[in-house]
């Protein structure tokens, strides 16, 4: 259960932006994530027209997939390039507007209105800006967050969830002494202590 040498590892926002600029995005899945398809019923729980949050969304194709099913999708990503790539790759028209509460941040929203992507640090967001969500698809966010920031991240997630919200979390299991991350190793015991 020890996370080994990873506990002090820090990946800066600049490093993430550089990954996008260099096209070093092996974490992006062109076909969508098979685990979301497998556990979609758990996320939706028989409900339709949900608000679903994609933390650290990148250009995840699942955002369009869920929006096409009639859900409202909100994502956050530090890389504006990733967000613009998402709209371009799906031929979706969108408009941009500043987020008054966050200096330098912007929201890119599909003209149909069902996909809203925030370009800023996730830690600049709050439920007063985003509202609350019926579901969260955390495919690569918790494992990308710097280990020292996990509690801060999970605390934010908790404030964004409605009472009967579903939270789908994907992690990776490996020997943390053999890989420096990201994705970071998050032991199951830590997931239980973070989310309760």
Automatic annotation (TrEMBL):
So which domain of life are we looking at? Eukaryota
> EC number(s) for this protein?
2.1.1.67
InterPro entries from the entry? Answer: SAM-dependent_MTases_sf (IPR029063), Thiopurine_S-MeTrfase (IPR025835), TPMT (IPR008854)
The protein's annotated catalytic reaction(s) are: S-adenosyl-L-methionine + a thiopurine = S-adenosyl-L-homocysteine + a thiopurine S-methylether
Q: Where in the cell is it found?
A: Cytoplasm
- Residues the record lists as binding S-adenosyl-L-methionine: 16-27, 56, 77, 121-122, 139
Q: Which GO terms describe its biological process?
A: methylation
One Gene Ontology cellular component term attached to this UniProt record is: cytoplasm
Where does the signal peptide begin and end?
none
Q: Which Pfam families match?
A: TPMT
Top EC class for this record:
transferase
Which family would the database say this protein is a member of?
Belongs to the class I-like SAM-binding methyltransferase superfamily. TPMT family.
Know the name of this protein? thiopurine S-methyltransferase
